[in-house]
Amino acid sequence: MANAITLAKTFIPILDKIYKQASLTSVLDGNPELVRQGASYNEMIIPKISMQGLALKNVTLRLKNAKGKVVFEEFGELLFTHFGLSGPIVLSASAHMGRKGEAFTVDLDLKPALDEKKLDARILRDFQKYANRDFKNALYDLAGHAMIPVLVRLSGIPEDTKVNVITREQRHRLVELFKHFPVSVTGTRPIDEAIVTSGGVKVGEIDPKTMASKKIEGLYFAGEIIDVDAYTGGYNLQIAWATGKAAGEAAADALHAE
């Protein structure tokens, strides 16, 4: 894959390749410049709170464009890193981000197995269990330690509020936060870190049986130099192997025929 990425970089000016499936950079990386670019609800928490290293399993990620339309949705795992978000579903989401300059937001459902009514009932049970605790100390059954300070800040509920005085409206805001945890995306990581590249030689200009160029005799293509790509999971490797085999065999046959 390293060779394919290096090769792809060489052809960027010619093929107008765009990168995808690199991890997403977000305002959660603690970078002051990125914080200024991020949404206002994140600005107050980023300098003080880090979720770096926090892995989330069994969550649903929704990628929304500037119009609020969901352009990608997937259930799975993700990771908060020093720069933002990464992990399987994040890599797949980045494939739908298109070209630079487009604005996107990640909407995380931290409890996809529960609808809002069931989640509210679950939170209410926990609040009854920890009735005399401060709010910040009553969420350990619902979220990881690193995420609790962020949830507390975004909920708008003072951290030292006793759980037994939290109102229904405040509890519903917490439910909404668990079901729609917002992350502003500032972009993808550099192409040097990309796992898969998007764009390349148009498939209509390639013989699918031999991978030979229809425009230049004796020129063959394989792997990511071709305008084909897929989600992570071995599919791109299969594309590289299959097209490489076809191109190699066809090129060898052509040489023997001379």
Furnish the topology, listing elements before pairings.
Blueprint: H1 2-10, H2 12-15, E1 18-20, E2 24-26, H3 32-37, H4 40-43, E3 55-65, E4 70-80, E5 84-86, H5 88-94, E6 104-109, H6 116-129, H7 148-155, H8 168-179, E7 181-188, E8 196-198, H9 235-257
Antiparallel strand pairs: 1-8, 2-5, 2-7, 3-4, 3-6, 4-5, 6-7
Your description of this structure?
A hairpin with a 3-residue loop joins strand 4 and strand 5 (84-86). By secondary structure, the protein is α+β, with helices and mostly antiparallel strands. Residues 1-22 and 26-49 have low confidence and may be disordered. It is built from nine helices and eight strands.
N- to C-terminal separation?
32 Å
Mean pLDDT: 81
Main pleated sheet: 6 strands, antiparallel, barrel
Spatially, the strands of the biggest sheet line up as 2-5-4-3-6-7
**Proportion of beta-strand residues:** 15-25%
* Beta strand count: 8
Radius of gyration: 23 Å
Proportion of residues in helical segments = 25-40%
3D shape: elongated
Structural class, from secondary structure content? alpha+beta
Spell out the key features of this protein.
two-stranded antiparallel ribbon; elongated; six-stranded antiparallel beta barrel; alpha+beta
Question: Summarize this, please?
Answer:
This protein is α+β, with helices and mostly antiparallel strands. It has nine helices and eight strands.
